[in-house]
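Typical record is below.
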Amino acid sequence: MERQSDAAAVPQRKAMGSPQNGDEGSNRGAVPGNLCQPLLSPCSSSGLQGVVDSEGRVDESRLRAYIFKQGGVLPGDRRLVWGFLFGMYPCSSTALERAALSEELGVRYQTMKRKWQRELPGAVRMRLNGTDEELIAAVKRFERSRLEAEESEAEESEEAREKKAFLKLQAQVLIDRVQLDIEELQEAVRIIDKDVPRTERDLDYFLGEGSANLLVLREVLITFAAFHPDVSYTQGMNELCSRFLEVLDSERDSYWCFSSYMEKIADDFKADGLRRKIELEVKLLQELDPELHAHLGREDLGSLTFCHRWLLLGFQREFEHSDALRLFEILSSNHLELNEIRDQERLRGGGEGRTELPPSVNPDFTFELFLCAAILLEHRATLLSCPSEVQLIQFTNSLQGKLDLNATLQKAKELFIKYCKKSVLDCFKNHCLPSKDREPFSFPLRSFFS
């Protein structure tokens, strides 16, 4: 993936409380048995005390482990945690430093947005079909809120205006270097204007007065597309971005967190990237359940195309909404990943690495693939009886909002352990014995669960 423009990147500096809500977009392996204990309820604020120091610095490794082991964070902690989890704020920053960075990011975002609005004025106002009265009312609310924000900005103190003027100048110099692809952006806006009204509008955040948040979502997506032409906009991004807007309740924070997240998963929105992920799921299923894998292959269903949405949107619609948010942060913690275990063991060994993955272990098998496999194996009997892909898609669609998150996570953990055990045994059978100065691969897995 091509790198995003420097203007669209979060400033990486050491010196840089929770995000401020003052931006214009604010709205409201043999392994021990204890590894199979179920994930607990979301962690409490008291639990975060061991993750955040007195000045607000965060131990990133401990935070990611805590999110995974405790099954997410409480809604009241989520806004603070997501700023770190999704890369808006450096974990080494203090609360005071983040206040300054927050203001800088707000000015830069507004400057980026004004640039595409100036160069593509026809996209400033959303295209309406004239029949969606709720959306028409949302546009009016949105425009009214913008006028109120401008009036509020005009009432700022002279000192605040001078400080902001300096930040605006810095941002303007940086943004002016970026050349927008207007033709490509026009196409992106056309698709965004079709997708935004299809966002889950039955969520409280988008109901009633909150319907104006659909227009905020639109502006975040257009700004992202304008400054990330290698990715631009693809259908489904609206669903992902809406999570950030709902949780962070800030246009500015949503943009920067969404951008950072997309930098990691953008390839999934490209044909080759998603195809590779599905191929990995097929390989994992073959390891875990050869019979089911063989059946799906005989019925020409082995491509698992019916899993595309699950993996692309992070199972957003398969679980009750609050659980889907928990799962999103659990998966984003990247705690239980085979390559992470390998890398952390190397760090513990002083860079040399006391533990290596057995040759039979595929480090590309991410935890989300085990989660997908857990859903497939939970409904194994139904899948074995489905004769066509149409029926399979109908069946998987029927699962929306009905899956039990705790049970599915537990099953995914068990499958992960089963795979690691098998890999270790295969390694021993093939005489891939570890050297005397190395621990067996199964040993360090303990710390990732307990």
Observations:
- Residues 95-119 form the longest helix (25 residues).
